[in-house]
Every structure is written in C-alpha cells, then in structure tokens.
C-alpha cells in the first residue's frame, strides 16, 4: 500500500506563510490561520508540504484502509486559498449563497481574496465544519 503524502510534518507554519510570494495571499493566509486556530482551539500544524491544519482525527474506510488527517485546514495556493471545509451537506448551499465570490469543489472552498467574501459567513462555514467533525470523530 502506498504511503500517505499528507501527514503532519515539522515545517514551521509561520515560515511557510512568510514564504507565500503574493502579499495579499500571504496576508489572507495569516488571517485564515488566526481564525481557524481561534475557532478550533488548536495550534496550526503543517500537513504535507502545503496544507495548514488544525487538530487531527483517525479515519477508516470500508476497505479497511486507515489514516490520519487534520480535522480542518486550508492551503494558500498560487491562484487562490483552498479551505477544506465542505462536505456536500444540503444546508451548505444556503450559507454559500451568502458568502460572496467563491467556487467549490469536492470538499473544498476556493477563494481568490478574503476581501471577496463575508468574513462572518466564512466563520459560520468553518464553525459548522468543526461541529460536523466533532460529531463524526469525537476527540
């Protein structure tokens, strides 16, 4: 079985954020990091080379494959911020409609700039994901 690439590392989060080339993306990453740390009560940790995660949980697929991942996280990619906060719940459509300019993918929320979205709605989305993770994977 292949080894998982996305696992907790010893890379310093502050160094990773400081190295983000785009000044706006760097500032946005710092703001998202601060918000997620405050909401989770967990310190940020690098997962793989580019994901900043908070907390951890163990999962097991029906196939028997197991692993560990951050409970919530994000990545300041070149084109946009990627927040790992979606899971396809029907109730997410309404809140996403209030968020502002964004796009979605399977489990991911893509934002070009934090200035494009409503900060309170983004926090609502993050809080909801934390609650769903707490319900599915109690600490």
TrEMBL record:
Organismal lineage: Bacteria, Pseudomonadati, Pseudomonadota, Alphaproteobacteria, Sphingomonadales
Domain of life: Bacteria
Protein name, as recorded: YdhG-like domain-containing protein
InterPro entries attached to this UniProt entry: YdhG-like
Domain YdhG-like positions: 26-129
Annotated organism of origin: Sphingomonas leidyi
Pfam families, sorted: DUF1801
């Amino acid at each position: 079985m292949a080894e998982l690439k996305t696992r907790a590392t010893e890379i310093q989060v502050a160094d990773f954020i400081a190295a983000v080339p785009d000044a706006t993306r760097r500032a946005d990453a710092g703001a998202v990091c601060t918000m997620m740390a405050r909401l989770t009560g967990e310190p940020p940790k690098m997962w793989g080379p580019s994901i900043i995660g908070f907390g951890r949980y163990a999962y097991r697929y029906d196939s028997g494959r197991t692993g560990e991942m951050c409970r919530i996280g994000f990545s300041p990619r070149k084109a946009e911020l990627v927040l790992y906060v979606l899971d396809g719940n029907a109730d997410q459509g309404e809140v996403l409609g209030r968020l502002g300019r964004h796009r979605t993918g399977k489990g991911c929320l893509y934002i070009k700039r934090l200035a494009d979205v409503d900060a309170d709605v983004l926090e609502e989305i993050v809080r909801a994901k934390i609650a769903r993770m707490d319900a599915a994977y109690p600490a």
